[in-house]
Design a protein that fits this description.
There is one protein chain. With 197 residues, this protein is mostly helical. The protein folds into 2 domains: 93 residues, Orthogonal Bundle (Rna Polymerase Sigma Factor, Chain: A); 102 residues, Winged helix-like DNA-binding domain superfamily/Winged helix DNA-binding domain (Arc Repressor Mutant, subunit A), CATH 1.10.10.10. Helices cover 73% and strands 0% of the residues. It is built from 9 helices and no strands. The radius of gyration is 20 Å and the shape is globular. It starts with 6 loop residues before the first helix and ends in a 13-residue tail after the last helix. 21% of the residues are buried.
Length: 197
């Protein structure tokens, strides 16, 4: 159990063994929290992602097939939750008075920085979404979940050389697509002054 959670513990936890559930959480909590913090960059959000990940995973233990590593399943679930949050936030986040208030940050610079970061992130995710399914999975596993090329090869059942090729080509394609998208969208500070409220 030091390196990877045994599927026997998962099976016992799925059968309702509270001790096995505790062992699952105990064995995976540190790595899952570190991943959530890397993805969200905020402790409070990382806590929420970890809690929701365990809630989802523990509710579906009986339907899991013992393939790959249990930690990989946790990481995929956490990554999907973060991506869902990013997409929801991008669609729902209006600029509020709190964001614009002088005591929050330097108002105009904060808004410009937030908008630019939002634009860049949206362009990157749009570019990743354009990738073919296998390279897209390799990119998410490598960059969002910190999997090694060897680990990705096991998960995707492909040779390590193929994984490296997918990652190399995907990096190039995502960079080009994201840059092209960013060039086509006007920047916040590029609007003429008369357009500002």
């Amino acid at each position: 159990m030091a390196d990877a959670v045994a599927w026997e513990i998962v099976r016992r936890a799925a059968a309702g063994d509270a001790g096995a559930r505790h062992d699952l959480v105990e064995a995976t909590l540190d790595n899952l929290w570190a991943l959530a913090l890397r993805l969200t960059r905020r402790r409070d959000e990382a806590d929420d992602v970890v809690q929701e990940t365990y809630t989802r995973v523990l509710a579906t233990l009986s339907s899991l097939e013992p393939t790959g590593r249990f930690e990989g399943y946790l990481a995929r679930t956490a990554t999907n939750l973060v991506v869902e949050r990013w997409r929801r936030r991008r669609a729902e986040t209006p600029l509020t008075d709190a964001v614009l208030s002088p005591e929050a940050l330097e108002p105009w610079q904060a808004v410009a920085d937030q908008e630019e970061e939002r634009r860049q992130l949206a362009a990157i995710w749009a570019a990743v979404g354009e990738l073919e399914p296998e390279p897209r999975a390799a990119v998410l596993l490598f960059y969002a979940q910190g999997e090694s090329c060897e680990g990705i090869a096991r998960i995707l059942d492909a040779p390590v050389g193929t994984i490296k090729t997918w990652l190399h080509r995907a990096r190039h394609q995502v960079r080009q697509s994201a840059e092209a998208l960013l060039r086509t969208e006007p920047a916040l500070d590029a609007r003429p002054c008369e357009d500002l409220p």
